[in-house]
Amino acid sequence: MKALTILWRRELALAWAGGGGPLLACAFFLTLTALVPLTVGGSPEALTPLSGGVAWLALALASTLSLERLFERDFEDGALDLIALGSAPLELVVVAKAKAQWLAVGVPLALTAPVAAIALGLPVALAPLTALTALIGSLGFALTGALGAALALGSKRGGLLIAVVVLPLYIPPVVFGSGALTRAADGADPWPATALLAAYVLFAAVITPFAGAAAIRNAQG
Amino acid sequence: MFGLANPQKFMAFTRPLQPVLWLAAVGLLAAGTWLSFAAPADYQQGDTVRIMFVHAPAATMGLGAYAALGVSSLFALIWRHPLADAAARAAALPGAAFTALALITGSLWGQPMWGTWWVWDARLTSVLVLFLFYLGYMALRASIDDEQKAARAAAVLALVGLINLPIVKFSVDWWNTLHQPASLLRAGGSSLDPAYLWPLLTMMAAYGMLFAAIWITAIRTVVTRRRVMTLRARAAMEA
Amino acid sequence: MTPYAAFVWPAWGITALVLGAVAARTLIAARRWDRALKAAEGGDR
């Protein structure tokens, strides 16, 4: 579908924002990471048990960062109306935006996650698992986040509202993702948890297009 | 049931029903309260077992109200039932209140039982998440100015929430097995002493009846308000 | 009741307070709009 391809390239370029998008998100991620020892103490005994979980927490928060602008800008300047009139179904438009969000913001965050986790005391051997689960998890965050962004279209207080709506929905990926790290750190098998994480992402991939398109149509009136 | 879609029919049907619901609610609450305090103190928990009679029904109704909210939202979105949106909105505040009460009474129960005001066990955490779902719904609804758009957006969120709820519950249960909290006293044991069954069931019924009374009354108010607005608009035009 | 009274009474008390407040709010709003309807309809005739 030619329209979809053009749209996809546009979304990717917008989300990438000349490198500013991912850089900003990663900077936020690392800042959050730095705050943790400053708040709970820097000793390895205090930090290491928390390292995987806190890395996931920071990943979830950083993922909500650029959500507000995902649809807002196009909505405000009328581009979203044009896109909706185009040949690409709105559901796929939502998916395209979520995917672009993931590639431009989620993947860089996922690659930063092992760095952050190790800085917090996670055993280096778990770095690949951290990256893998973060890659999958951030796709889930992007999908669910896109849904939240679509729902909050046309509202005041977009950023905080999206976070309040979306963070409870982030609970399953956060639990399974950090759970995989905990299992691995205990010497147990992390793959069931990783599978559950992937299942969640599939679930979000089904829900987000339809619910997101419905939300956009509603906002357009 | 779809005959009740007509606001006129709904109002006619619920007019005699409303006082009955309130009376039943008050009656059951009185009976349940009496039964709760007449029941003997638990050999293990002492009098704190009486907190269960306001805690368990609150948690159940918090969930029940969310189901009502979700189903109403479904009707609003798919069948465009005129009263469905009002029903969804009317369920939100009582539902959130029940859920908050479940958390507060759970905390007050937890302190004498486990020596701590809050425990991150699967059940309490799930109730907390349900409360967050309510907050998100109400926040979304309040933050969009256009009432119709706000209602539809909130309906979508309610449905997404309803579908996600079992998944979140599952993930919280799974999480709980991962991080075994230190020696958690299993409240009430596996089988409930029959002396506690009647107070509990009565309070459950009472809460259900109270929700029904509040819900129906609130929906009726929405219908009345819409009618008043229409009349006022017409009067302003004809003036 | 002894030591547990400090927990049982507040639990029931807060319950009564919150549920009473929600019920009151609902009934007061209903009463208010019923009166408004009578006024709107009465004024029309």
3D architecture notes:
The complex is a heterotrimer of chains A (221), B (239) and C (45). Chain A is mainly alpha-helical. Chain A has one domain. Chain A is 83% helix and 0% strand. Chain A has 10 helices and no strands. The relative contact order of chain A is 0.15. Chain B is built from 6 helices and no strands. With 239 residues, chain B is mostly helical. Chain B is globular, with a radius of gyration of 21 Å. Chain B has one domain. About 4% of the residues of chain B have low confidence. The longest helix of chain B is centred in the C-terminal third of the chain and has 45 residues. Chain B is 81% helix and 0% strand. Chain C is mostly helical and 45 residues long. Chain C has 1 helix and no strands. Chain C is rod-shaped. The termini of chain C are far apart. The model of chain C has no long low-confidence stretch (mean pLDDT 87). Chains in contact: A-B, B-C. Chains A and B meet through helix 8, helix 9 and helix 10 of A and helix 4 and helix 5 of B.
